[in-house]
Each structure stands twice: as structure tokens, then as C-alpha cells.
Amino acid sequence: MVRIQLRPYKAAGGDPDALVEAFVATANSGGGSTERLARYGRLAVELAGEGVLPFSPAEVSAYLADRAAQGFPAVHHSAAYEAAYGPAYRVVATRHLPRLRRALGPDTTAVYKIAGADTLRLHLFFPEGHTPDDRRAAIVFFFGGGWTGGTPTQFYPHARYFAARGMVAATAEYRVRNRHGTTPFESVRDGVSAVRWMRTHAAELGLDPDRIAAGGGSAGGHVAAATALLEGYDEPGADRSVSARPDALVLFNPVIDNGPGGYGYDRIGARYRSFSPLHNIRPGAPPTVVFLGTEDRLVSVATLRAFERRMEAAGARCDVYYYGGQGHGFFNYRDGANPYYLRTLQAADRFLASLGYLDGPPLLE
């Protein structure tokens, strides 16, 4: 496990530059996700309060409580610790805000939807030198978690990578059961709203409205596929003159069969006919790439082969990559050295390049 090393900071007599170096080094080595930063509790809460992390202090605190309930080590914080480090929190957040933003999270966030008391944001990553006058290809990622949990930070590494390759990249917040008390149907509605918002705001975001890809893993892969294949999930009052369908799909062990025997059927029931991507493939489906481990216990090889056959029958491109011996979630960034993260990212890069979304070779080769 990667840990932020605070010893250099302490040895430097509270020099915030040393703390920044520790944060940046950790981020670059794969420890910059909110999950790992939250282990340091108070520091994460303080940075969130200063706007460095794209989450509110309440969200970070709730995350810490949830992790503790799952058996992770509790975060201890004392008055002496706050006295020693508190002043540096403010210095770090103000003096080094731009640098920390680059290392730890998105360039900005934007509200794409307000659903009752819930405000949903896109976490946006831009290429270096990007301007609104550009017309770049874009991709939006949806996190996994069984429509129950999960966080947009899961796909931060992917978003950073594709932004470095010249795309406008985003990771989307969407409603899930543990945080919002919602069903999978609301998750799909939010996915539809996110894609439509990006296309509606293409001019100000500097993206090409005809080159928007959607991606995701597990249940997030379902949400991405649903935006392309399902009908009837527009919010009341949505501007349907603006399409919410992505132009391409990048799916990591996606939940694509919600019918009897498929994932989520116990929650979806008979409504699977309008909810399951596998059962809603039709002509006009966008080009798609799918990654799956052969030992995945949630999404079977047989299911993906059926999806591939139906896509081909509909005249849609469907590139499939199988990874022997790998289970669910095999593609995740983890510590940055996961070979399957690198392999799937390279293949996704080549797929998007074949569509004209990217130029030049993958950065990872």
C-alpha cells in the first residue's frame, strides 16, 4: 500500500513545500486517489475544505466513517497533531493550489444535474493548453459499485491519461443506493443526463459534440452502455433535441445482462427488458470495445460472447479482449503498476485512435 510520507515534512520544521512534494510523489506513484488520501483523515478533510480535493469535507468524513465500518484502520487525530500541522494545511491549499489540483484531481468540476436535494458533478480533465475554441474528442467515465457505492476517483487515472492524449475527459458522479437511497434506474437517468450535458455544453468545453465516448466499469459499464442502447431514461423536461447517446463505448467488465440469471435481476425484475443492454441492441449501436477477465464471477465469458454476436448482427463494431485468469475489477489502476491496467488502457487508446479520437501512438508504449 502506498502511504503519504509525512516524515520529511515534519523534519523540515513544518515546511509546506515538503508536504507538497510528498503529496505529488504519492500521486505520481498511484497513491493520489481519495481512497488512499482519506487514510490521513484530517489532512484530507482540511484540503477538501480549501477546495483542493473535488469533494466536500462532509463527503470525505463520511467516506472515512464508511471505511472504518468496513474494518479499515481508524484515523487518529489529536489536538497536538492539529497544532503542528494545521497552519501548513492553509499554506498548502493556497500557495500550492494549482500544483495540487494537477497532481490529485481534475482541473475543475461542473454541476450537470440537480435531482431533488442531490447535486451531481462532472470531474473534468483538460489537455495542456486547451481552450474553448478547440473541438477535441471527449470521454466520460462512470464508476463501478453495483449501483450501490463507488466513487468517480476510480477512473481518475484513465481520465488523466486521455487528457494527456488530447481528449477532454470526465468522470461522473451519479446517484447510488448507499449515498442517495436510489435504485439502478436513477443511476441510468443520471448517465443519460451527463452525456446530454456534455453535448449541450460542447462549445464552452471545447469538445466535438460528434465525438463523445462513454466508458465505465462493472455497474458503471452498464450505465455507459445504457446511455447508448436504452430508451426511456430521459428526465422529464430534458431537451431531447440534444442526443444523449455517446458516439463510442469503452467498457471494462460491464454488467450487460440484467435478465434472469444475470447480475441485478433481483433488483430489476421484469423491467430488465428495458434495462438490460444485452436485450436492447439494435442497428445504430455505437462502436464498442469491451475488456473482460475469463474468471469474472459477475460477468461471464458466455454473456460477453452473446453481446458480441448481437452487436455484430446489428451491424455494430464490437472489439472484445479477454484476459486469462483474471477476475472482476482486474483493469483498475491500483498502485499504477498493474499490468492489466496498462494493457487495457493501451487497447482502449488504439480503439479510440481508430475512430479518429486520438492521434499518434499511445503514451504507454
List the helices and strands and how they pair.
Layout: H1 7-11, H2 16-31, H3 34-37, H4 42-49, H5 57-69, H6 79-95, H7 97-104, E1 108-115, E2 118-125, E3 136-142, H8 156-164, E4 168-172, H9 177-180, H10 184-200, H11 202-205, E5 207-217, H12 219-229, E6 248-252, H13 265-268, E7 288-293, H14 301-313, E8 318-323, H15 339-354
Helix pairs in contact: 2-6, 2-7, 4-5, 4-6, 10-12
Commentary on this structure:
The protein has helices at residues 7-11, 16-31, 34-37, 42-49, 57-69, 79-95, 97-104, 156-164, 177-180, 184-200, 202-205, 219-229, 265-268, 301-313, 339-354, and strands spanning 108-115, 118-125, 136-142, 168-172, 207-217, 248-252, 288-293, 318-323. It has 365 residues and is of the alpha/beta class. It has 2 domains: 7-103, no CATH class; 107-354, Rossmann fold (3-Layer(aba) Sandwich). It has an 8-stranded mixed β-sheet with strand order 1-2-4-3-5-6-7-8, with helices on both faces. Helix 4 (42-49) runs parallel beside helix 6 (79-95). It starts with 6 loop residues before the first helix and ends in an 11-residue tail after the last helix. Residues 1-21, 23-42, 50-57 and 70-103 have low confidence and may be disordered.
